């Protein structure tokens, strides 16, 4: 491989990963975008995620968990959502552990509203979008945060 070549892992809908080589100039938008956080500056702290996914409270050992404890709790939650351990590990590898945990929290929150057919499929689609540099969880998180504040106002 040359210095201007990067390796790109792709995930098919069936869950199979393939490796391809993509030409690009290191530091260009197409290369650096895929490494950018899908949170794009949104501060999704542990307290926000606990509000978003109340089921996590039962899986955490403290009422104010740190990121590492929250990630462990989210990993335990993946099975009940129907997300395979392989998809979870792949998301952690590609996005980063905390970003993968936030993605699973988004999936859980949407699933509770009946907006998810396949949690595992949605996570794999998020992995693919992250690799393409098009995953923007911040917009979804802003919408879910707005829903949380609306729920508190009227209930």
Structure in words:
- The chain is mainly α and 155 residues long.
- Helices cover 59% and strands 9% of the residues.
- It has 8 helices and 2 strands, in the order ββαααααααα.
- A two-stranded antiparallel sheet has the order 1-2.
- α5 (85-95) packs across α6 (97-112) and α5 packs parallel to α7 (119-132).
- The protein starts with a strand and ends with a helix.
In one word, what is the shape?
Answer: globular
Low-confidence stretches: 1-8, 12-34
Rg computed from alpha carbons, rounded to a whole number of angstroms: 16 Å
Q: Report helical residue fraction.
A: 55-70%
Secondary structure category:
mainly alpha
Distance between the termini: 58 Å
Number of helices: 8
Query: What value does the average pLDDT take?
Result: 80
* Largest sheet geometry: 2 strands, antiparallel
What structural keywords apply?
155 residues, mainly alpha, two-stranded antiparallel ribbon, 2 strands, 59% helix, disordered N terminus
Task: Give the secondary structure arrangement, pairings included.
Elements lengths: L4 E7 L5 E7 L5 H7 L10 H7 L3 H4 L7 H15 L3 H11 L1 H16 L6 H14 L4 H18 L1
Antiparallel strand pairs: 1-2
Helix pairs in contact: 4-6, 5-6, 5-7, 6-7, 6-8
């Amino acid at each position: 491989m040359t210095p201007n070549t990067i390796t790109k892992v792709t995930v098919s809908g069936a869950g199979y990963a393939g490796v391809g080589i993509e030409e690009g100039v290191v530091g260009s938008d197409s290369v650096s975008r895929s490494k950018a956080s899908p949170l794009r500056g949104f501060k999704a702290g542990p307290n926000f995620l606990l509000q978003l996914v109340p089921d996590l409270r039962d899986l955490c050992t403290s009422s104010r968990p740190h990121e590492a404890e929250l990630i462990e709790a989210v990993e335990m939650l993946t099975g009940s959502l129907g997300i395979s351990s392989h998809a979870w590990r792949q998301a952690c590898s590609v996005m980063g552990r905390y970003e993968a945990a936030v993605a699973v929290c988004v999936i859980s929150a949407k699933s509770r509203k009946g907006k998810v057919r396949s949690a595992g499929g949605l996570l794999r689609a998020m992995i693919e979008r992250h690799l393409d540099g098009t995953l923007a969880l911040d917009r979804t998180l802003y919408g879910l945060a707005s829903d949380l504040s609306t729920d508190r106002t009227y209930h």
